[in-house]
Design brief:
216 residues; alpha+beta; 60s Ribosomal Protein L30, Chain: A; Alpha-Beta Plaits; 6-stranded mixed sheet; 4-stranded antiparallel sheet; 5 helices; 10 strands; 37% strand
C-alpha cells in the first residue's frame, strides 16, 4: 500500500474517491466493449499535479480493474496490472486549464482508446467533466445508464419514451457531443438497476451505438 502521511491523508481522501470512481467508470466501459487492456495513462493537472500520486494511481487502478478482475484492491491493483501485462504510466501537467484540479484516465485496449476525466467541486465532491474528449458534466450516481449515439433529431424523445414506458425514472440527464451531427453521449442516473430487457430496448433504438449500465 502506498505510504500516506497523517498530514496528507485529509487532502488526498477526496482525490482517492475521485480516482476510484473514474477508474470504475472506465473499467465498466472497457468490460462492456470486451477489449483487452494494454496501457493505462493517469494524468494529473492543476492542484492534483502537486499531490502524492502513488495512492491516487492505486485507487484509480483498483477502480479500473475491479469490474474485470476478482479480488482487486488498492494494495494489489498495481501488481495485478503488471501480472496481466498492462503498462501503467503517470503524467503531471502545469498547463492552464478551465479546472483548478483535474484527473484524467486514458485506457488503451486492443480495440480502441478512451478517456474519462473528473474534478472536485464544492467540499471535495467528485464530478465527471469529460468522456472520450466530449464535455459531459455529471455527478456520480449509484445507478447510471451510459449511451453513445449519433447526434440526430429524435433520439432524446425516443430514448425518454422507452424508459418512461418501462417505468424507469430518470433522476438526472446529461448530454454532450463531439460536433453537430457527430458522436454524442447521453448519461443519466436512474433510481435502481435497469433490467436487461429494457437495456436491450435502448440498444435497439435508432442512432444508438452503445448502451451500458454502470454501478458505483
Amino acid at each position: 500500500m502506498p505510504s500516506v502521511s497523517a498530514e496528507e491523508a485529509p487532502r488526498l481522501r477526496p482525490y482517492m474517491d475521485l480516482c476510484r470512481l473514474l477508474g470504475a467508470f472506465a473499467g465498466q466501459l472497457t468490460q462492456a466493449r470486451d477489449g483487452v487492456m494494454q496501457r493505462v495513462l493517469i494524468e494529473y493537472e492543476g492542484a492534483a499535479a502537486h499531490l502524492n500520486h502513488k495512492p491516487l494511481s492505486a485507487a484509480a487502478l483498483a477502480g479500473l480493474l475491479g469490474p474485470v478482475m476478482e479480488g482487486v484492491n488498492m494494495v494489489n491493483a498495481p501488481v495485478f496490472a503488471r501480472d496481466h501485462g498492462i503498462e501503467v504510466s503517470e503524467a503531471t501537467h502545469d498547463r492552464i486549464s478551465e479546472y483548478q484540479t483535474l484527473v484524467r484516465i486514458t485506457v488503451t485496449t486492443d480495440q480502441n482508446t478512451r478517456s474519462v476525466a473528473g474534478t472536485l467541486i464544492g467540499n471535495g465532491k467528485p464530478r465527471l467533466v469529460e468522456i472520450k474528449n466530449i464535455k459531459v458534466e455529471a455527478d456520480f450516481a449509484r445507478h447510471m445508464l451510459y449511451v453513445t449515439n449519433k447526434d440526430k433529431p429524435g433520439f432524446i424523445g425516443r430514448f425518454g419514451t422507452t424508459l418512461a414506458e418501462a417505468g424507469v425514472n430518470i433522476a438526472t440527464f446529461h448530454l454532450g457531443r463531439a460536433a453537430e451531427g457527430g458522436d454524442a453521449i447521453c448519461l443519466v442516473s436512474i433510481d435502481g438497476d435497469l433490467p436487461d430487457a429494457i437495456l436491450a430496448q435502448v440498444k435497439a433504438l435508432p442512432l444508438v451505438m452503445q448502451a451500458t449500465t454502470l454501478a458505483f
